[in-house]
What we know:
The chain is 66% helix and 1% strand. It is an all-alpha fold.
Amino acid sequence: MKYCMKCGVEVNEQKHRFCPLCNTIILSDAEIENLTMRQIKLAKSVKLKKPKPTPKKINPNVPPLIYLITLLVAITAIISLLVIDFVIGFNISWSLIPIISIILFILLCLPLVVRKKLYWFYTFDTFILIVYFILLNILINHRITWSFYVILSILLLWIYISTIFLNKIKGFILKLTFITISTTIYVLLITISLSQNNVFSRLVLPINGLVFILSIITYMFIKTYYYKWHVIVSTITINTSILCIGIDLLINKFLTDRFILKWSHFVLIVLIPLTLCMYY
């Protein structure tokens, strides 16, 4: 019996060429006698490379039975709706809305037949929903009205999730900057569409900018002084106090056209003593 050179586990060299715990190579007596100290140190770092499991080949052209049955039922329903609508009014009118809803359902069920990454399906379903709401709005109102806000919200949610979970966008500051810019563009588009209401430009944009700046400051302090917990707590409490004061001033300016404090001083009464205690 021998011992692993790395983790010290007793290993039967007759059965195991590599350590079952850390996968480090187990040298025989002959190898130890013939190798130099440098070669032994190099061999100590050698690990067993486990072969990657080969995924089972799946034919994407053969849909599952459930999806095939659902597709046949959907096609039957679409044909029935078209026939009933045409027989009643000799034209195609009300049946278009349930038809595009059925098509939407079929497209959203594509993960049953296509083997791709989850992000691909999320992106595909996002743009399918956008097209669906545009068509629905045009069929109901004959122009784009309410679907504009729904589309913007769906796109903003897609950007948020893509920024957070997509590995190609790395770094907290870069992700936060991307999210802030996207939110700002979203707010600007909403503001342009609501010309008679300036609540977005007077409230959301300043608050959004304040949150972005304070988040960057908090992140930089935490990254720099991660080993000093009292500095981290103080940074969070100070930035929270500034955020509360800013929100209080902006809301009162919008409502009363005056910069006054109504509730944020209660937050300061709690947070300021806590901040001072961190330095003693």
